[in-house]
Amino acid sequence: MLLVGLLAGMNLPHPAQAADEELLQKVDKLYKEIETLKGSVKKVENKSIGRWLTIGGDYRFRYDYLKGSTKPFTDVNATFTNAQNVLQQGYFNAVAAGDAAATQQFAGAIAGMTSFSQAMTGVKTYNQALTFLGNNQAMLGALQNYAVTVPAYKPENATLYTNKLGLDLHAKATQDVTVNTRLVMYKVFGSQDDQAVTNGDAAPYFADRVGVFDGTLGHVPSTSYLDVDRAYATWSNIADQPLWFSVGRRPSTNGAPSNLRLNNERPGNGGTPSLLVDYAFDGMTIGYAPDIEMLPGAYAKVCYGRGFESGFRSTPANSIADTDMLGVAVIPIDTDPLRVWLQWNRGFNIFDAPTMNNTYFGNTAPKVNLGDIDWWGAGYMSTLKKVGPGDLNFFTDAALSVTHPNNNVSAQFGFQGLMTGAFFNPEAPTSKTGWAVSAGVRYDLPSKTKLGFEYNHGSKNWITFAPAADDMWTSKVGTRGNVYEGYVIQELNLKPISSYFSKTFFRVGYQYYDFEYTGSNNWVGAPVKMSEVNGQMMTTTPLESAHDVYATFEVHF
Amino acid sequence: MKKILSLVVLTALLAFTSLTVVTNASAEDVKMIGVISKIEMAKDGKSATATLKDNKTGESVPILITDDLTLDKFKDKRIVEGDEIRCKFEKVNDKNNSKIFKKTAGC
Questions:
Q1: ipTM beyond 0.95?
Q2: Considering only alpha carbons, which residue of chain A is nearest residue B23?
Q3: pLDDT on residue A356
């Protein structure tokens, strides 16, 4: 056949042969152009924004009905304010009346009060507090005359509406390096502050709801500003090993197993157990995830975070050390059927108050370091598929907190120490051990209905580091008592469009807090048994029980 | 105190790292890191073939996955095309049977 073709070709006229050659040249040129275009398209595809940048987020509308029951107490802040107001008013009245003797008396009292307050701020240690109190018995006695006692009452907010928006950006910057960012806006309807959840102009109920601060920004309602909740870079596969380094504003909130009730995806290698930490730390992590066939998903990491930056040290005005957190996490197995976590955390140089503005106590800031705290935790969560018609998720988590107080006391809180003392009643530094357990279950039906229940218990001296938890009253994981929560999630059967994990759902739930001791989520001062609360001087309102009925409409995109 | 902390951290990491000594990669095992370019589920849903583009060589390597955990992640879209995967597979005849198939760890 080839020979026949050749012979036929030899018989063709020269013009025809020339045309064929030209055609072949054109075909060859076109082929090369196609190959070039393929390469160009590939380059363009590789640079396509969808290849390296993922944008997503979530929106939530939430309704809350809040109701509680308090115990009678003496409001410290109101007492000092009352004393000042009464004395000042008395002075002005005396001046107006031309009563020289009364004027001098009130002026002296005001001067005495001022001196007392100023001297009080200079008290740093337990022994200094004892000396100060001993030297000021008269003033302390006089102060009682201005005591503002708050009788038991039943606070209620029948309609608290909040709006929350989160925007997530995940960028593959270079090979093995990614950058994750989460921006959050969280506000109350009709407000640009946190007053609705901090009790406004009355004594707040809990230390973690006095105001919004660095660690809770974006997690406690405040303004419509878009704040940076997470921003970190991660370098993975270091030296071709399953080793990573990550630094930035950490994904240290909403950790496992809180993803169940929040209807979020599992945290993966990031995050910390929510019973121990729920705080927006700035910090870094070094992690290692070896390939162990008998321990699928195993990894370990060392995490560090800064809770408070003190600034220049050894200056005339600053003797406060930075507050830091160090943690070691070992997750021996991480699969759907079973995820196990072991965690140790250490809080160094715990402050007495975070930096907050415009709170019931005015502008607050750390004034003293109270000591260190150790936390130990262990837990697991599991998903069992095809249990009846649906899937069963459950978890159990347990933790221990051990305080290591130094000799310092907090002058701004009446010489209370790290889990020690009461207002104007200091206690010798003593290590306190507390414990907590958390358990929950969620059953996911094929109808996309998810039924969940959780129980939390904290002992008398339990303290955690979780002010950013998604709870309105106070972080339930830090409760000194019991918290019961039941919820129903109904996802709408709508096809996801923006991402594989897009979903729209409603969530209806109920929380009941049964406080056995005062001071949940507060490491300043010793807890008081709720049944023994009867008018003592306290900085926060002792809440005996609380209810929260909530409903949400949420969209993940 | 610093010594104690260092000791605690070191002990924890050593204890964990020692687990890695228990198992060593078989001579027939191959490890690679690559991005998934294609996932093909078998009709019966009991296996899948994921094609990884080796980060080092750029070659496309087909991996046969048969374990339920990974298959569930394919079905739930928790592992999708474009994800970077750390993989260990065993060469058996002409097939690369997955032994470990997981997303690259991070954060």
A1: no
A2: A292
A3: 95
